[in-house]
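Sorry to interrupt, but I need a hand with the structure work. Please put the record directly below this note.
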Amino acid sequence: MMNGEKIMSEYVWCHGPNCHTNHTVDRVRGSKGAKVLRTRKIKFYESRYNNFYNYFCSNGCYNDFAHQYAEQIVAIAPRREPLETPIDRVEKIKHENEYHSWTETRIIPREV
């Protein structure tokens, strides 16, 4: 499901704004004299998790999309106040071995 509606096809086109400009052999389509670089087709996996792998063929295409549309994405759900997680305590644990010593800091969240 995508936004509550059933996907008609098992595939979607990559949403990367520059996907069709990347020079890779799998993007070349068309006959001699009319060849083009085409956006990649992606298999859509229905899952209870909605993730970007269903919409982008690579991290590069995802990053291109995020950089181009960052302000519009944030405008969908603007954050006007910080989020906070209550913590119970902060523990400092000292470790030591024959070569060196170090301190580990553990933050223990409060049970809600």
User: Anything to note?
Assistant: Residues 11-76 form one domain.
